[in-house]
Amino acid sequence: MVLGLGFILLSLNTRVAFGQLGPLAPVAGFGTGALTVLGLLPPLCMGLFAPLTPWVRRRLGEERGLFWASVLLLAGTVVRMAGLPGLFVGTVLVSIATAVVNVLIPVFVRSRFAPRRVGVMMGVYALSMGAGSALVAALMVPVWQASGHSWQTAIGVAVVPAALAAIGIAPQVRGSGASAPQVRGSGVSASQTPARVRSGSVGQQGQEGQEGQERQEGQEGQEGQEGPQRQQGREGQQGRGLVWSLTAYFGLQTLLFYTTLAWLPAILVDAGVTGATAGNMQAVFIVGVAVGGFLTPVLAAARTDQRPHLLGIVLVCAGGYAGLLAAPAAAPALWAVVLGIGLGGGQAVAGVLYVKRGKDHEHVAALSTVAQTGGYLLAAAGPVTASVLHTMTGTWTVPLVVFLGVLLLSVVASLRAGHDRP
Prior knowledge:
The protein is an all-alpha fold. It has a two-stranded antiparallel sheet. The model is unreliable at 177-212 and 214-226 (pLDDT under 50). The protein is built from 17 helices and two strands. A hairpin with a 4-residue loop joins β1 (182-183) and β2. The two termini are 38 Å apart.
């Protein structure tokens, strides 16, 4: 009960700060340059600091790592209230904390919950994440109006869920035992086990296997060694293919998610939707993220092959972008919720892929770290590229067409990540 409640409170807070600016942007007077930078910072910082997580996990363990990440996130939400400079600095702090949470959550779920509950818990994580963001996003304009048009007060609403997250995860720290997590079945702490992708993921055999092969080189003929060498080469190629597939798929989906999160209200305002309505559509979008984020992991985790789910995600997203292209002002709520369901599913299913393709806790942590490092760095280009294309063309048509092209690329990228090879 305590574990589940703490997990939900932590999940509720994970994306709150990133969904606040969209509703405020049409009414609070943020400049295009400020919005572009604030849209760039979260994925950029998460990509840069995701590699820090294995060190945090070795030193603190998963529970303590999540707790101190929650404390840092709380500090960042407070700093964000200190004017525009504080908004930039606080966003960096929140993004660093979120980078740690993003990588640790799949490992935490795999180690603390039964295998049959992995899909449900990843779904609960995404649903809570979306619900918290949607609730806070819906409050932005009313709080801004009630406070005499103070965006700092509206931004400060995020302090409440941030504090609840730190309080909720704190009991897990007391019961976490030693700071270094234990690798199940090995009796070896994670500080003694390198957090890297093993032979099934990056094409390297263990040191013991290499030494054994070297000792036999003088005893076996060249013909006898060709078979194992070819097998090792095939495993290496498959492992590298998995890592690249996970990274590319997650990066492309995340690029679309953060770009849409940053610019959806602006797209609707340019189409003739009022500023207040466009801001509310951000909350509708995040509600869709919550729905898609819950349903997709639950459905995908029940199968060994996730490729049909990945294709379904792309088709739903394509429907939303096509609606924004054809008639953005005709049904903005429909396009917003459809995009939210698709992009929310695309974000949430990545955690299932790490768990399904990983061989053990260390492998899951390594896949999560590598994919999120490269994926978030790729995604950081999205908000800036969309802004440049809009400035050059004076319309959102070209960026939306580019988004559809990115979806096609994500289909190709997902083919290896979506299933286990025999």
